[in-house]
Protein: UDP-glucuronic acid decarboxylase 1
Organism: Sinanodonta woodiana
Amino acid sequence: MTSSKLMRFLPLRKMKSTKLIAFVVIFVLVLVGYSKLSSTKETGPMEAKDNILREFNKADSPIDVMEEIAQLKKKVLELEKGTKKYPETKFLNYKDRKRILITGGAGFVGSHLSDKLMKQGHEVTVVDNFFTGRKLNVEHWIGHPNFELIHHDIVNPLYIEVDQIYHLASPASPPNYMYNPIKTIKTNTVGTINMLGLARRTRARLLLASTSEVYGDPEVHPQNEEYWGHVNPIGPRACYDEGKRVAETMCYAYAKQENIEVRVARIFNTFGPRMHMNDGRVVSNFILQALQGQPITVYGEGKQTRSFQYVTDLVEGLVALMNSNYSQPVNLGNPDEHTIMDFADIIKRLVGGDSKVVNKPAMQDDPRKRKPDISRAKLYLNWEPKVQLEVGINKTIEYFRNELKSTKFSERLNTF
Ligand SMILES: NC(=O)c1ccc[n+]([C@@H]2O[C@H](COP(=O)([O-])OP(=O)(O)OC[C@H]3O[C@@H](n4cnc5c(N)ncnc54)[C@H](O)[C@@H]3O)[C@@H](O)[C@H]2O)c1
């Protein structure tokens, strides 16, 4: 339409200039309003998907959304079809197959132990109250005919039929066991009595997951099993240290009085995939801080030493001890000793990035030195750790990298 026609069509000629301006402004506003309205129209599924992907990619560190979605899709399809694939397991005949209970089996160590025993072809029952454990750690076995997961607190008695009991249930990291000290003591005392009672009724063999903390802040270095320890009975760690010491006492009391077969593993610091993100332990702290570009915090000067074993080495040791004829306590740990500052440097180097190491005040009753003497384990179990520190740390870094990715993904998902 030409402008003269437009003027004829609209009664613009008769309007005064102020009215004409007002008319033009209103006309433009109506046009803008209409275009906005049409852009907020319901989007089609493809547009919606694109919008979601665009939103996800606005995240601080972009994540591989398509890969995450593909994995979720696969899981949904598996669930819909009922064709869940389990890791491969051996077949054991009735004579060799054992009914094995793992208390705390949904935790870090317990879930790796479940993997080992399931793959060997045993029937595994995991009992857990999910205080620090999570279903996700054993999710890959749920539904398998040889596997059962029971939500239960071992402070209450449990009546099932078993041949062996791996008794691991107890919070293990300082922030977790200090969170509710009374519950920590109850789990290690009442819970252990309950499991020993179950062992007595079923005539099962029980292995206690004890700890190097029974040596406290040791005056003997390296620590062998003859050493009685140096523990503060009323310090902040006592609920755990003394809890485990009395749990050991109970095991040998039941062995003596009730003829129960017991095994006691004194476990030294262990690390690996499925450690808790926020358990405050050295390896997980350092890796997470380095991955997120945060300062790596070292308590005290960092001259205190620790020796860390990789979780699969520990699991091999636990199974060897359970099936051995040796009933005295056995240290399971890696004697490869490093200062905490060394660990900070190794992890920083393996993760890359530019995190700085910063020192914070030392923690109360933090042991200055820790290194196992593993002569007993070598002699009686023919066991020693095999996984090199850097190999284990790299696997753990990979695990935490994926955990951070999934956490970011879930956080973004929750914003929709
Ligand atoms: N990881 C180590 O470095 C280390 C070192 C020394 C000893 N240990 C011992 O090994 C065992 C396993 O340690 P982890 O590192 O796997 O710890 P974790 O916290 O990952 O696992 C402990 C499990 O026990 C469960 N649990 C706690 N209280 C319970 C209760 N009352 N009833 C039922 N379940 C309960 C938790 O939910 C969790 O699944 C613990 O007994 C710990 O003391 C571990």
User: Anything to note?
Assistant: The pocket of nicotinamide-adenine-dinucleotide is lined by residues 103-104, 106-110, 127-133, 153-155, 168-172, 187, 191, 209, 211, 267, 269-270 (CB under 6 Å). The longest helix spans residues 389-414. Confidence is low (pLDDT under 50) at residues 1-14, 32-43. The CA atoms of residues 46 and 52 lie 10 Å apart.
